[in-house]
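In the design runs reported in the main text, the only information available to the sequence generator was the tokenized backbone. The following block is the verbatim input for one such run; it is reproduced so that readers can re-run the procedure and compare outputs position by position.
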């Protein structure tokens, strides 16, 4: 019928914890690079922005991708063209909803967090202007 089995529920919970951990690692990494924190997991009807930061005068929308290994590809490869369009839509929604000037400088970055099998951070890579509006 419509029931989730315990395995699906456990996988969803584990994936959420992994994502939350990656977002905390990314946030700390960006703060160390001199950025200021604005929001975490900002949500609207179109979806969610993982992190919103400020880099000087520039508003930065950050998509965080966390992976335990390279078996299914690197984290940055998981951002599909559809996800890119959604992130641009989310950025515009934030700008209009949060009364930020449409003229404000902004960009979309990606932070990839790679973990080893024990859950230790192996690499945290910040990709500036990773997604650009066409």
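Verbatim output:
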């Amino acid at each position: 019928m419509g029931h989730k089995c315990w395995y699906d529920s456990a996988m969803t919970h584990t994936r959420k914890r992994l994502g939350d951990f990656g977002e905390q690692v990314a946030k700390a990494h960006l703060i160390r690079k001199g950025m200021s924190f604005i929001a975490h997991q900002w949500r609207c009807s179109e979806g969610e922005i993982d992190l919103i930061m400020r880099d000087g005068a520039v508003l930065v929308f950050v998509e965080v991708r966390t992976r335990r290994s390279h078996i299914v590809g690197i984290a940055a490869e998981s951002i599909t063209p559809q996800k890119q369009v959604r992130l641009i839509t989310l950025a515009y929604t934030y700008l209009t909803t949060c009364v930020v000037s449409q003229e404000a400088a902004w960009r979309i970055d990606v932070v990839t967090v790679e973990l080893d099998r024990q859950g230790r951070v192996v690499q945290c890579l910040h990709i500036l202007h990773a997604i650009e509006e066409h």
